[in-house]
TrEMBL record:
Organism superkingdom: Bacteria
Alphabetical UniProt keywords: Heme, Iron, Metal-binding, Transport
Taxonomic source organism: Shiella aurantiaca
Gene3D superfamilies given in the database record: Globins
InterPro entries registered for this protein in UniProt: Globin-like_sf (IPR009050), Globin/Proto (IPR012292), Hemoglobin_trunc (IPR001486)
A Pfam family of this chain: Bac_globin
Protein name: Group III truncated hemoglobin
Record flagged with keyword Chaperone: no
Transport recorded as keyword: yes
Amino acid sequence: MAELIQTPEDIRHLVDSFYQKVQTDALLGPVFNEIAQVDWAHHLPRMYGFWEKMLLGTGHFEGNPMRTHLDLNQKHPLTSEHFQRWLQLFEETIAENFEGQKAEIAIERAKSIATVMQSKIAQAKRHFS
């Protein structure tokens, strides 16, 4: 049964469920695990804070995700397929676990993040080509 996103525990469930999918995904898993070599013990708490801030207004996030993704794109080009798959897994995770206004907001924020990241990466490619 789908739940509302109301607490930090809900955010942790969302983030953990989503990144379990990402880590084992045929397209995204190698990017996160092998190329970016994500330190999951460090990354997941940062994502808890990010999504708590986005959805509950209570979390804390510091960092420059755009810079991180631009640097990653230098190692391995990030394509629209990567972003589409990321968004698909995010939306699946929401649909499997949550409902309501915050769930809808989460999907809209994820779409916005994917769009902005793709745009900035495309700009950087044009600038440095």
